[in-house]
Write a structure and sequence with these properties.
Elements lengths: L2 H7 L3 H15 L21 E2 L10 E5 L11 E9 L19 H9 E9 L2 E2 L11 E4 L15 H17 L6 H5 L3 E9 L7 E12 L4 E12 L10 E3 L4 E5 L3 E5 L5 E6 L2 E9 L5 E5 L9 E9 L7 E2 L3 E6 L12 E4 L4 E2 L4 E5 L5 E6 L9 E2 L4 E5 L9 E7 L8 E2 L3 E3 L7 E4 L9 E5 L5 E6 L4 E7 L4 E5 L9 E7 L8 E2 L3 E2 L7 E5 L2 E2 L4 E8 L13 E5 L4 E12 L4 E5 L4 E3 L5 E4 L3 H8 L5 E12 L6 E10 L5 E7 L3
Parallel strand pairs: 11-18, 20-27, 37-46
Antiparallel strand pairs: 1-2, 2-3, 3-7, 4-5, 4-8, 6-7, 8-9, 10-12, 12-15, 13-14, 13-16, 16-17, 16-18, 19-21, 21-24, 22-23, 22-25, 25-26, 25-27, 28-29, 29-32, 30-31, 30-33, 33-34, 33-35, 36-38, 38-44, 39-43, 39-45, 40-41, 40-44, 42-43, 45-46
Keywords: Signal
Organism: Amycolatopsis cihanbeyliensis
Protein name: Bacterial Ig domain-containing protein
Length: 656
Amino acid sequence: MPVKEQKRRGLKPFARAAVLTAMGAALVGGVASQGVAAAEGRPDNNSWTELDKRPGTPDRMHFKVNKKEGKVLPGERATVSVEWDLWNIWTTFQADKAGKGQLNAAQDLVKLFAWQTANITLNGETCADFGRGQQPATQKFERGKKEGGFNFEPVDVGGLVAQVRNLFADLASGVIGENVVSDFFNSNVRATCEFTVPENPGRMINVGGDVALNNLFGLLRSNQKGLAYLPVQLPKAPGKPTIAPAGNTVDLPEGGELTGKADPGTTVRFKVDGTAYPEPSVVADAQGTWKLRLPSDLKAGQTHLIQATSQKLEGGPAAASDPKIVNVKSGDDPAPHVKQPVITSPEGDTVKPGQELTVTGSDGSVVTPVDKDGKPVGPSVEVKDGQAKVTLNDDLPNGAKVRVEAKAKDGSGQPKFSDEKTVQAGVDKPVITSPAGDVRPGDELTVTGSDGSVVTAVDQDGKQIGGPVEIKDGKAKITLPNNLKDGSQVKVVAKPKEGSGDPVSSDPKTVRAEKPEFYQNVVPTAKPGENSYLDVNFEPKNGDVTSIAGKTVTLRAPEGFTFGNVSYVVVGHNGIGKGIGINNLVQRNDDGTLAVTLPPAEEMKATFGDDIKAFKLSITAIAKVDASATPGEKAVGEAKLDGFTPVPLKGTVVEK
């Protein structure tokens, strides 16, 4: 047969002879290479990440974890794999490539002669033994076809002989294809171990692989071993928990409860005499309060050193409290006498979220604010000299019922309770801080009040005319409608966000439809150390802003404020303004005042032209609140303009 025809039909003579030699050697008992098998190829799965191997691990051994980032977290389930690349017969014959066709009998032929097993270890332990006491770990030989991990399938020997005969006939005639090897010999074996990452695994888990290769009916054997690193991402430890009440020693009955504080949302457990107890456990509430019974194996007459440990829900290192000596008492011991606690302050039937309560009771008893179901709504405190102060949680809802529970320090006896009080989640009185003085139709009001409260502008009849708006960072803005009548009054009403509770109203403001020509438009409102701005307007009745060109405006900052940069804006009837910085026109006097000399009329016209049809000029100064300023409305400031009545300037300092 011509060489050209041989190439068209399949393998070159040299390559075909090489395959025949290799297959013939296998058929009569020879071995082409250890590890040849018909396992499936290693998958290209983006959810698996290859791990770094330790030196000395064979090149054909690979380790992976089913985490894209290649790291595991304490407490989570993870799967690692060890894979061994089987021998690729075609790499022996790189000089000659096969043509197109099929190789069917070779797969069965190799399966008859070879099998493999693989095992995984974690930190030197078998997969099944790792993490005992947690969710069981399981190992699988995923490429195997038979229980026990053997990569071996029985074949029909008679059919095999027939296939091999046909195979050799095809090889001899040159019709074997170029893809035969990639289908059957470029393969691997793979074992996986699914396990739970321990709560405190350290920063690294050593993953070991042991692949046993058997060929020629098991007459030739080889064990290939290697190691890889599995990184562990450890979350930071939470804050140090505490056990209440204060002191080094506490007496409790069997099954008695300890309480304390921990980071909200963390899991609290006990460590007794240095031994960690996985149960009982409890999750600290939103205020960080926890309550937990003693483990059942702590019996009366025993004394133990107990710590509270706090751990994030995602695992990681735990923080431990200072140790407390706990004397476990018998239930037969006489219970100490505990008086009924009395809330002496505040007086009345209502309390506020976050409020401090003054309680009287028996010395040495422990008092805790609780809700109607007995759940703590604040930390426990020991009564000393007949009195204690407890603080309610900040998140108590309006209308909730609270009382104070008193118990013996050792937890024995029945608790006593104070009279009940109702939570009134009230709001602070809102204050209209801007504009100063009377308001005008269309004005924007700046309102201060309680964060989270909702404010609404109403007229003198209580009809809503603006808002509602939620107060954030101590303030909110509401725009008045343009159709308010001269001489009418407006005020702002504040309510809790959920709508319950009594509304609180601001002082009323009078509406003046006719505006003065020179007035303060914006009152600076900010917290100590923060910036706001102050704005004074000149709005001439004749509409000619150039009538004050060349004049001087003198500004004195309100008490507790300091002026920064200054600019002015000319505003047209269409609401569009054009502004320019005028720091070069500002004289800063020794008494702290600013003297702003406005440009001449020609310069103003050249700057802004006639297209804006100006009707108002605003001078704006950055106003910074002094760091030591006290909260409240500030006066003393003043704005003077030649030929006009001086305007008092105000500012408002908001609580931090």
